[in-house]
């Protein structure tokens, strides 16, 4: 299990891996938003956390289609299916590795991007925390869709279309937790706890669905 | 014991596509007649009933909007049951049912959105407000569209059946969460409540056409669904026959 | 129904939309069914039919069980 985790992590950061590309995409999305809405620093500071969340959501979706596709192409997937360890656990470990390569690096890059958007220290901290706690849910729910579309030649776009409606709760509670931490009337803890609960729920649902989909590819 | 086994036998009797075709061919004309009758009565009441003192004539939009919204949700329920049938019991007609229901569900969700928007413009002064109910329906429409896109992308029907069943169930579990989160988001951003009909305290004057139209739409769905399922079965037969003929042609050589 | 009411256009438009959608669905189902039956007939004319019904008059629906 640990070796699978490390292997996936190493692959993600290698030349063709999705980890760094996702990070670059995140950077690019955040960089073009001021061009779209104008360089007003006050406005940017107000909507900055939301921009970071939307950018992270899109960047997390970007790499999802590679979650199982490379394994399917080189036949590793068949080996993984034949393991004695339950497929659900294997999928879960793969999701964790994918999250460490995408979601975690996105959350860690928030301090630099936050400066670009004129965020102050509490806002940066809150966004980092909610992103770090919210992106696992995105990866886990995405695993289900990635497994469903793994057999398709151009599944990437379809994965995004399938995942986005399911990812809306994560976005809502992530953003409202961030705003709850910053603005006085709104509360931080309830949406944050719901965000964590969503993680746990998707940690069950996503791998289950992904394992069922991968199994159904075999016969 | 014997009762359940009898039900199971009935149920598996339906599993034979030929028998389903025969049965549905007998059922369909009656169902179509019932639908037409319900529509005639329902439309009569919908047109002749009094307008609301507050909403005026626009209340009549409710008689097509609410039934199509109800259908949009019910069709997803039908698809979820079919998805369970595909994954758990491997019922051969279950995935035919799910696949036939998808475009119908998407059409009624779209109709609910369009009529809701047509209702919202005179009532709220905007074609679209980010109201919790509207937003959840928009998301439902996206989910239908995603399912159709997946089904169009997959060629092998057996594989498409299994994969879309997984996706349908994943969506089904998520629908309450999405609904809850959208409600949360809405109260966060829009404290002012929008004008809406006062709960279940609807006058009988409005309730009668509403229920009749809901029954008519439901019957209409079952007609369309049965017919679409028949078409889907025939389409699969054609595909199998084509494959057979291609195989026999290949076996007999180019001369055959 | 009062055709002089202020928002009658919206009411008519929504009934029109419902009409378009319903008839579109009916048309789709009917045309699709017709095309599929034509496919089956064409295949049968070419001498290809299902193993289960080899009888020549199998173009109609298989006989209903009593």
From TrEMBL, chain A:
GO MF annotations, alphabetized: heme transmembrane transporter activity
Keyword Transport: yes
GO cellular component, one term: plasma membrane
Keywords for this protein: Cell inner membrane, Cell membrane, Cytochrome c-type biogenesis, Membrane, Transmembrane, Transmembrane helix, Transport
Regions that span the bilayer: 12-37, 43-64, 85-108, 128-150, 157-176, 188-214
Chief location bin: membrane
Membership in a protein family: Belongs to the CcmB/CycW/HelB family.
Record-linked Pfam families: CcmB
Name of the featured protein: Heme exporter protein B
Lipid bilayer topology: Multi-pass membrane protein
Annotated NCBIfam families: ccmB
Localisation: Cell inner membrane
GO biological process, one term: cytochrome c biosynthetic process
Function: Required for the export of heme to the periplasm for the biogenesis of c-type cytochromes.
Record carries keyword Transmembrane: yes
Automatic annotation (TrEMBL), chain B:
Membrane topology qualifier: Multi-pass membrane protein
Transmembrane segments: 27-48, 68-89, 101-120, 132-151, 163-186, 206-227
Gene Ontology molecular function terms on file: heme binding; heme transmembrane transporter activity
UniProtKB keywords: Cell inner membrane, Cell membrane, Cytochrome c-type biogenesis, Membrane, Transmembrane, Transmembrane helix, Transport
GO biological process terms on file: cytochrome complex assembly
Chief localisation class: membrane
Domain Cytochrome c assembly protein, chain residue ranges per copy: 14-189
Xref: InterPro entries: Cyt_c_assembly, Cyt_c_biogenesis_CcmC, Cyt_c_biogenesis_CcsA/CcmC
GO cellular component, one term: plasma membrane
Location in or out of the cell: Cell inner membrane; Membrane
Pfam families: Cytochrom_C_asm
Annotated family: Belongs to the CcmC/CycZ/HelC family.
Function as written in the Swiss-Prot or TrEMBL entry: Required for the export of heme to the periplasm for the biogenesis of c-type cytochromes.
Protein name: Heme exporter protein C
Source species of the chain: Xaviernesmea rhizosphaerae
Highest classification ranks of the organism: Bacteria, Pseudomonadati, Pseudomonadota, Alphaproteobacteria, Hyphomicrobiales
Automatic annotation (TrEMBL), chain C:
Chain intervals for the UniProt region annotation (Disordered): 47-66
Major localization listed first in the record, in broad terms: membrane
Positions of transmembrane segments: 12-31
Membrane topology: Single-pass membrane protein
Superkingdom to which the source organism belongs: Bacteria
A GO cellular component annotation in the UniProt record: plasma membrane
Localization per Swiss-Prot or TrEMBL: Cell inner membrane
Record-linked Pfam families: CcmD
A single GO BP: cytochrome complex assembly
UniProtKB keywords: Cell inner membrane, Cell membrane, Cytochrome c-type biogenesis, Membrane, Transmembrane, Transmembrane helix, Transport
InterPro entries: Haem_export_protD_CcmD
Protein family: Belongs to the CcmD/CycX/HelD family.
Protein task: Required for the export of heme to the periplasm for the biogenesis of c-type cytochromes.
UniProt name for this protein: Heme exporter protein D
Native species: Xaviernesmea rhizosphaerae
């Amino acid at each position: 299990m640990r070796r699978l985790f490390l292997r996936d992590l190493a692959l993600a950061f290698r030349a063709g891996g999705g980890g760094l590309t996702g990070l670059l995409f995140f950077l690019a999305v955040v960089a073009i938003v001021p061009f779209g809405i104008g360089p007003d620093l006050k406005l940017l500071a107000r909507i900055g956390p939301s921009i970071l969340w939307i950018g992270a959501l899109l960047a997390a979706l970007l790499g999802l289609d590679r979650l199982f596709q490379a394994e399917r192409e080189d036949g590793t997937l068949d080996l993984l299916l034949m393991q004695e360890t339950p497929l659900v656990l294997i999928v879960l470990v793969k999701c964790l590795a994918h999250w460490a390569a995408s979601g975690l690096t996105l959350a860690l890059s928030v301090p630099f991007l936050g400066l670009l958007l004129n965020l102050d220290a509490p806002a940066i901290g809150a966004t980092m925390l909610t992103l770090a706690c919210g992106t696992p849910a995105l990866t886990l729910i995405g695993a289900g869709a990635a497994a469903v579309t793994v057999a398709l030649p151009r599944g990437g776009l379809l994965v995004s279309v399938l995942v986005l409606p399911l990812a809306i709760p994560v976005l809502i509670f992530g953003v409202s937790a961030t705003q709850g931490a910053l603005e006085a009337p709104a509360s931080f803890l309830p949406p944050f706890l719901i965000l964590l609960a969503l993680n746990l729920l998707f940690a069950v649902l996503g791998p289950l669905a992904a394992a069922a989909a991968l199994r159904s590819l075999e016969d | 014991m014997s009762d359940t086994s009898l039900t199971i036998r009935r149920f598996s009797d339906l599993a034979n596509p030929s028998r389903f075709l025969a049965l549905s061919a007998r059922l369909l004309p009656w169902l179509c007649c019932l639908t037409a009758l319900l529509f005639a009565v329902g439309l009569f009441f919908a047109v002749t009933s009094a307008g609301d003192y507050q909403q005026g004539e626009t209340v009549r939009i409710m008689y097509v909007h609410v039934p199509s919204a109800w259908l949009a949700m019910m069709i997803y329920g039908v698809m979820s049951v079919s998805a369970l049938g595909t994954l758990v019991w491997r019922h051969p007609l279950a995935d035919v049912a799910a696949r036939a229901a998808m475009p119908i569900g998407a059409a009624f969700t779209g109709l609910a959105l369009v009529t809701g928007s047509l209702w919202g413009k005179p009532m709220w002064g905007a074609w679209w407000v980010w109201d919790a109910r509207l937003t959840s329906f928009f998301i439902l429409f996206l989910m239908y569209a995603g399912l159709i896109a997946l089904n169009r992308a997959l060629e092998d029907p057996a594989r498409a059946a299994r994969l879309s069943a997984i996706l349908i169930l994943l969506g089904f579990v998520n629908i309450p969460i999405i609904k809850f989160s959208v409600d949360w988001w809405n109260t966060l951003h829009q404290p002012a409540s929008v004008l809406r009909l006062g709960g279940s305290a609807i006058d009988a004057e409005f309730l009668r056409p509403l229920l009749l139209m809901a029954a008519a739409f439901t019957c209409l769905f079952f007609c369309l669904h049965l017919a679409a399922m028949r078409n889907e079965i025939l389409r699969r037969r054609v595909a199998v026959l084509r494959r057979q003929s291609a195989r026999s042609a290949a076996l007999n050589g180019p001369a055959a | 129904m009062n055709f002089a009411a202020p928002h009658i256009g919206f009411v008519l438009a929504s009934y029109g939309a419902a009409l378009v959608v319903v008839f579109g669905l009916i048309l789709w189902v009917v045309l699709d069914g017709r095309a599929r039956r034509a496919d089956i007939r064409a295949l049968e004319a070419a001498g290809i039919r299902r193993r289960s019904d080899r009888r020549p008059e199998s173009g109609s629906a298989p006989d209903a069980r009593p």
